[in-house]
């Protein structure tokens, strides 16, 4: 499967002599030295790929460069160096007119602050991208209504934006992006202006829509828990650079450096980890034929703890074909809930007598 979106060694420098600044960055000069000569390096040597149907989350603190990076992906900002490829086409080589065509038909953006037109109805706001495309009125209203229904706004089509709550207004922004049927959605801190409960509701809405629509999404956030909840893959940025890319479990269990480790120290591991992440893979036996309760590799950590509490031995983890792929000793569950940095296969707890029992059934 080829990547839908590719970023290749992207740099963005604002200020004096940006091309020369890129060369200095490549030679090892840091951001502070450049700032002293009037150049600001917002993004430094960023590379990643996004697969079709994937939610790729870019997270970092304010000033890390994540929003600048997002704006280079659809040509709103031109990279100082590097390339962006979308479905194999080099976006950095397109003319302004061609870029506008890509943004109108293939790439949609959902903004943090809704960006709704107050003088247009909910339907008219949702249909705006289609209006820009030149879609006839009847067709764009039909597609806008379908997108609004997907976002839970059926019956609100004739309302005005100021009659909606913040969460509902953000749903209109999402519906507007979906109505164009764009292949790629760029979401820039789209939920960060919402209250915590509404924010979680919007996260649920996005995950539910993604199961059906399978869009390719790049989602920007400064909230680690949001990143862990939404992202199929996550890129962590610091000072303009991507310092680690991987799944939520990769980042949580194998932080690339002390910065990432400190960033994730307060994350609720039970909301992220699955049986596959914590199981002991050093097992014997090809088939799990015991009649005891088992877990699938994607069983959430909290459910795994519940199973462990019901059985007197380690939990057997079996694949779709019934093959035993691992076991989870109770000591390992305790270890992962604690402060220790144990990863799969590195837990200090030795295999206990119960492990032999469960493998004897396998």
UniProtKB/TrEMBL annotation:
Q: Name one GO molecular function term.
A: ATP binding
Keyword Nucleotide-binding set for record? yes
Q: Can you tell me which residues the record assigns to a coiled coil?
A: none
Q: Where is the composition biased (Basic and acidic residues)?
A: 350-362
The ABC transporter domain covers 23-264
Keywords carried by this UniProt record: ATP-binding, Nucleotide-binding, Transport
- PROSITE patterns, per database record: ABC_TRANSPORTER_1, ABC_TRANSPORTER_2
The record ties this protein, via Pfam families, to: ABC_tran
Is Membrane tagged as a keyword? no
Q: Where is this region: Disordered?
A: 340-362
NCBIfam families named among the record's database cross-references: proV
> In which family does this protein belong, per the annotation?
Belongs to the ABC transporter superfamily.
Annotated protein name in UniProt: Glycine betaine/L-proline ABC transporter ATP-binding protein
Q: Which organism is it from?
A: Streptomyces tropicalis
List the taxonomic lineage. Bacteria, Bacillati, Actinomycetota, Actinomycetes, Kitasatosporales
């Amino acid at each position: 499967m080829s990547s839908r979106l590719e970023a290749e060694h992207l740099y963005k420098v604002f200020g004096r002599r940006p091309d020369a600044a890129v060369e200095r960055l490549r030679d090892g000069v840091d951001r502070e030295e450049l700032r002293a000569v009037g150049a600001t390096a917002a993004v430094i040597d960023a590379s990643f790929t996004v697969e079709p149907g994937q939610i790729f989350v870019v997270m970092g603190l304010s000033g890390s460069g994540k929003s600048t990076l997002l704006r280079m992906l659809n040509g709103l900002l031109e990279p100082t160096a590097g390339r962006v490829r979308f479905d194999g086409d080099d976006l950095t080589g397109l003319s302004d007119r061609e870029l506008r065509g890509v943004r109108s038909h293939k790439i949609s953006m959902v903004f943090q602050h809704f960006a709704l037109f107050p003088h247009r109805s909910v339907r008219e706001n949702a249909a705006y991208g289609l209006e820009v495309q030149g879609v006839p009125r009847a067709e764009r209203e039909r597609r806008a209504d379908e997108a609004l229904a997907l976002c839970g706004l059926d019956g609100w089509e004739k309302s005005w934006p100021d009659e909606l709550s913040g969460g509902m207004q953000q749903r209109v922004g999402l519906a507007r992006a979906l109505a164009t049927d764009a292949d790629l959605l760029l979401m820039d801190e789209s939920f960060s202006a919402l209250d915590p409960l509404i924010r979680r509701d919007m996260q649920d809405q996005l995950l539910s829509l993604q199961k059906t629509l399978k869009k390719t999404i790049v989602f920007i956030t400064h909230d680690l828990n949001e990143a862990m909840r939404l992202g199929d893959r996550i890129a962590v940025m610091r000072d303009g650079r991507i310092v680690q890319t991987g799944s939520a479990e990769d980042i949580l269990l194998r932080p690339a450096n002390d910065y990432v480790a400190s960033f994730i120290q307060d994350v609720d591991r039970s909301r992220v980890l699955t049986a596959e992440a914590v199981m002991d893979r050093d097992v014997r036996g090809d088939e799990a034929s015991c009649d005891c309760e088992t877990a699938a590799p994607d069983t959430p950590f909290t459910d795994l703890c519940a199973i462990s509490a019901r059985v007197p031995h380690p939990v057997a983890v079996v694949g779709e074909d019934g093959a035993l792929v691992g076991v989870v000793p109770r000591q390992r569950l305790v270890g992962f809930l604690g402060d220790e940095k144990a990863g799969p296969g590195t837990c200090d707890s030795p295999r206990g007598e119960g492990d032999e029992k469960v493998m004897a059934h396998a």
